[in-house]
Amino acid sequence: MKSRNDELTQRYLTLLRLDAKNVFNRIRDRKNEYLEIFALRRTREHFPMIFNNRYEKTTVSDLAHCSTDLIELLDQFYSMVDDVKWYLFKTEDMPNTVQDYIERRIIRLQKILTNLNMYIDAELGVVTEQQSPLMAESVESEFIIGAMEEETDIFSTPVDDDTSAES
């Protein structure tokens, strides 16, 4: 399907989509490595390489090529990326707590990225399977259910058979 946007707008939208995808992939795919370095060496020198993105250098003129809804989603996504970055640079939490925090944020970032990609695809005139409202709902539900199961596992305590027999 041919996009209704001019070529320059298509380029901006494509660059924004690629940048968001690349930032997310670095946060998710390199998580074990950057958290291990942080835990063992207590250094934060490697974090800028993970969180480096083009959006920080995007101008208002560049964003003028995007719809207001897309600008809001971009802001939501990159604000959360910035929150994760700030947390990692300033936290005094123990490594396990840091890992739990990052895993929860990855789930949220994935959800926002999915919506962001759907909006960009719509603006570009690209039709994908993910644009189906039912598909988006099921993807969203999987992330929410997965997050709830993880939190339930963390807080559940095993029942001791001896104790439950006395009750």
Tell me what the structure shows.
By secondary structure, this protein is an all-alpha fold. Helices cover 75% and strands 0% of the residues. The protein has eight helices and no strands. The chain has helices at 7-29, 31-41, 47-51, 60-63, 68-90, 95-124, 133-155, 161-166. Helix 2 runs antiparallel to helix 6 (95-124) and helix 5 runs antiparallel to helix 6. The longest helix has 30 residues, at 95-124. The relative contact order is 0.13.
Give the secondary structure arrangement, pairings included.
Layout: H1 7-29, H2 31-41, H3 47-51, H4 60-63, H5 68-90, H6 95-124, H7 133-155, H8 161-166
Helix pairs in contact: 1-5, 1-6, 2-6, 5-6, 6-7
What attributes does this structure have?
mainly alpha, single chain, 167 residues
